[in-house]
Amino acid sequence: MRNALARFMPGSRNARDRGRLRWIVNPQPPRNEPSSPLGSLSEPSIRTSIRPTVARIDVDALRRNAQRLRALMKSTVALWAVIKADAYGHGAIRVARALEPVCDGFAVSLAEEGLELRAAGIRSCVLVLGAYYDGQHEEVVARGLTPVVYDVADLYAFSAAGARRGLVATIHLKVETGMNRLGVPLSELHDVLERIEKLPALRLGGLCTHFASADVADDGTTDQAILSFQKCLADARKLGFRELQNHAANSAATIRFPNAHFDAVRPGLALYGAAPSSAVNLDGFEPVLRLSTRIMAIHNVAPGEPVSYGGLWRALRPSRIGTLPIGYADGYPRHVRHAVALVGSRRVPIVGAVCMDMLMLDLTDAPSSNVGDVAVLIGDYASEQITIDDLARWAGTVNYEVLCGISKRVPRI
User: Fold this and answer.
1) Cβ partners under 8 Å of residue 257, min gap 6
2) What pLDDT does 16 receive?
3) Which residue in 139, 177, 272, 338 has its CB near the most CB atoms, within 10 A?
4) Is domain 2-57+288-405 classified as CATH 1.10.10.10?
């Protein structure tokens, strides 16, 4: 029996079968487990040695969100899904594989993120939005990634890399329209375009920019940025650059500014069913990520007794305290205030300081809860739901940060 079970332990060649282990140890699903087949077959049980903290990614909802974005655009506009930062914490490779049939390409921040996609077999266009360090130009060209350039020195570096390989390197040029982060100033655009024209192993594939305020209620700043970008496009056409794929719109601009769609859009957060701000209407979009675990221990605490580091919370009554195997090392924010989790159909408060690997719940008003019960940190359970915006509000941050902060040690199912 020991040898049979060892085949399923983490790190073994059969670790991919770890979700089946609970059926060997305990043929009956633990109490209050979700009734869906995905939930019952793929969430590890607290009764195994495998930690039950998981992020479940609904790839069907992901695809439907992409189709909802497509419905906002003309058929001639390309959709490049932004999957930087490990697809906003959802798992870049699996997200790319799910979206490759329904998107025209992808956008990442770092060259290594693009190289990871290529190594995983992704063959679609991959736009690299960020900087290039330590001679990455050669590898970017070799692996067919499309770099976004904002620095003149990179023009020469990519041209040289293309020439060494007997290729013409295609780049996109980023222009500054108000973000004041990266981009060629409008006053220098004419000179930079002339430089590109003279480099034999370089081809300009498109112009792009990034909006600083597309998600705020006042449209004025974005309207001005669109006008500035349109002027850039006109200047490029005068110099003979006509076969370009120009792009500017993030999620907020894709939804709120149809005149910013140009030839392609670059939505990120909206793909994952989260709104960049309250000014962005995301009605009909579906959350893609569900973060859950299982209660690992329950103990009684007398009135006045503290819970967790520093005694920040003390019981005001005889209390049942449950411990969950998830903490800030997994990406659950340490400084949440008034946060809750879902245990069954109940919202139960998270109490005391969140630890690196664990956090505690007050289960006093959920007397039927038990070790092994599912606890949902993000997502729905029965008629109740905790959104990513709820958790961001409790942590005093933005939903982007919470999603991107879910660490690699949380398995994505």
Assistant:
1) 214, 219, 222, 226, 249
2) 36
3) 272
4) no
pTM: 0.86
Catalytic center residues: 84, 309
Q: Answer for the pair 73, 265: CB distance below 8 angstroms, yes or no.
A: yes
Q: Which residues lie below 8 Å from residue 156, measured CB to CB, with a gap of 6+?
A: 199
Residue 233 and residue 237: Cα distance in Å, rounded?
Answer: 6
Tokens linked to 90: 């959802």
Residues 6 or more apart from 344 whose CB is under 8 A from it?
Answer: 32, 366, 368, 369, 373, 381, 382
Q: Which residue has the tokens 């790190």?
A: 11
Lowest mean pLDDT among 28-37, 129-138, 332-341, 368-377: 28-37
pLDDT of residue 131: 82
> Could you read off the pLDDT of 184-222 as tens digits, one per residue?
999 999 999 999 999 999 999 999 999 999 999 999 999
Statement: 59-272 belongs to CATH 3.30.930.10? no
Task: Give whole-number Cα distances, 122 to 91, 95, 116, 187, 290, in Å.
Answer: 14, 11, 9, 38, 25
